[in-house]
Amino acid sequence: MRNRLNKRIACLLMIALIVTMVPIQSAKVQAAGASTWKVVKINNTAFDKEYSLEFDTGGVTYGYKNGKVVLMNTYTRKLIKITSFTEINEIRKIGNNVDAIVVKETKGKRLFGVIDKTGKTLIPTSIYTEIFFTTNGFFAIDALKNHYFLSRDARVLCEYKNGEKIVQYGNYFAVINERSLDFKEMYDYDGNKVDNIPESERTANNQYYIMRNTLIQGMIDKSSESMNGLKDDMLPAYYKEHNPKGEWKRRYSYVTPVQNCYIINILEEYGDKNNVLFTASKKYLYDLKGNLITVADDIKAFNNTKQYIVSISNDKDIKIYNARNAKATAIQPSITGEYDYLTFETFGDYIIISKCHAYDDGGELQPSAGIIYDLGGKVVEECDDINIYSNFIEMNGKYYNEKMEELSVQGSIYSATNGYMIRKNLGSGKEKIIFTDFKLNQVTSAIIKKNEVHIFNNYDSDSIPDRADFDILPNGAGVHVSSEHMSKDDTKHYFIDRNGHVRKEFSDSKGYHYYKVVTKGSTNQIAVLKTQKAATVNIGQTVISSAKNTAPGELTVKWNTIKGVTAYHVEIRREDNREYIAKDAKTNSIVVTGLKKGMSYKVQIRAYVNRGDGWDVGK
User: Fold this and answer.
1) Which homologous superfamily is 1-16+537-619 in?
2) Which residues form the Fibronectin type-III domain (predicted)?
3) Phi/psi at 564 (nearest 5 deg)?
4) What is the pLDDT of residues 4-61, one digit of tens each?
5) Which of 296, 333, 340, 356 is the most exposed place for a label (fewest CB within 10 A)?
């Protein structure tokens, strides 16, 4: 979360770029009509007030006119539709759909609905007092606090109770108890109740809640019991010396479903009465029927497909498992030289084993020498120097993608929020900067004056660093770069097209501007709309007006309404910190069930606004 607003908190006891631009046809900048917008190449705007979004809607701009929600064509600036709704609550893009949760308020009563980007009503504002986005539809609540899982065409897929929640995966979703996680019912996405998932479709994921209290609990118990015989070997000498009594303080278990396998991590904190002095853990791999496959120091699923699992024990016993049938392939690390321990990472369809050195204080060095294996355990490459990034690796000064294809990289790489910037000195006071995505695919490049874009931690006389970042424009049309001059309290902005031409630049020191970039079909054309910085929205202080025990183990909390927020995030924590609940509400009240009788609870409420790419949070 980005905390861009002043934070205030309501709390009650007892109860968070660099250089280029896009082609714009020549046209005079005209007045923005009835709004604060000033636009380039566009004649006017149909809004009294625009609804700010931070993602590409594919040609639709949202706002208000005469108190009603309005949709406008971003390119022509002509109205698409004037609706009868009075408020936009939230807009999200899920898959190819851009939908808006809207509100109609009449006589103080607020009802929620959903529209698509043409203004068509998907869910009418006639029943629901709260609606939330979810992956495959919407969660909704009516005035009687009944809960519903709705499809995008407003069908009720299932009704569930307060205190229950929906878990979605694959072709099915489950209703479980929000607190105990006990399984209740399974459905498909046509709303049909499913008693038994066909065996051919069963996975560790969709069986987790069904088997959680039986088969999986048995796996946890079996794994935990085996830890009892390991602790003497796992304790370091310094701990035995300083705490000869040897008290196990806490034991935790974590279960990770992967295809047709479960990875169970048993973690134990070992210490005295006041401090955790040592943490020991072992990981266990089981198949879908609960058969133990292996015990290892570390077990990881592959990052890309999760079809394979790797285990490592004693810095020498390394195996690759097919996560669908648990069949193993053993490999032997052929790393020579000195090292303190081995680590491994999954990279594409490869495994990288690296040797590491530890300092006396337990700190780690970046893995240096390493060896790369394919899924068959065959050595692909050995290297003396390796650095692992998210989507590529640097090996002996060369760069490779996830297919182990060498990438053409000339220059120094710098990380940015949405990719990498590669700097190459051209001499004569010039340098070339290449902008890439996270896989080092080039978006564009530009030749600039040396150090014109401050991405290299240059320091001025006051030792305040300058820095830069960039966004990739829709359809790969170019990049938007912001270069921050911290000592001058100024940020310069550049738009660079895909051919490396700087098409627009401006500076915050002359009044903050926000440029909204939109695409038009598949032509890679963009329009750059200039507006003055929106006034800072003061979400305001959330004040709890009442918190009452309305039934045994039930708490009802009410607070003040803050106009224009997306929702309220409610956190409830028991006084001994052994119970924590987090829920969202779109009205100014919430009912929480299943609390422990006789205990005190702290309640915190934060109002927030979601604009699609971050959160403005009150506190």
Assistant:
1) Immunoglobulins (2.60.40.10)
2) 540-619
3) 90, 0
4) 333 333 332 232 222 222 222 222 222 222 222 233 444 356 678 888 787 778 788 8
5) 340
Beta strand 298-301 with 308-313 is: antiparallel
Average pLDDT score over residue span 311-338? 79
Phi, psi angle pair for 487, to nearest 5°? -65, -25
Query: What are the φ and ψ backbone dihedral angles of 464, each rounded to 5 degrees?
Result: -105, 120
Q: How many helices (H) and strands (E) does the chain have?
A: 4, 49
User: Are 330 and 296 contacting, i.e. CB atoms less than 8 angstroms apart?
Assistant: no
Q: CATH number of the domain at 46-172, out of 3.40.50.360, 3.40.50.11890, 3.40.250.10, 2.40.10.480?
A: 2.40.10.480
For residue 465, pLDDT over 90 is answered with: no
pTM: 0.73
Joined together, the tokens standing for residue 561 give 């309404």
Q: Which residue has the tokens 């108890």?
A: 177
Backbone dihedral angles phi then psi of residue 94, each to the nearest 5 degrees: -125, 115
pLDDT of residue 18: 24
Question: Would you say 607 and 539 are in contact if contact means Cβ atoms under 8 Å apart?
Answer: yes
C-alpha 205/C-alpha 87 separation (Å) is 38
Domain boundaries of the chain, sorted by first residue: 1-16+537-619, 46-172, 212-402, 412-438+440-527
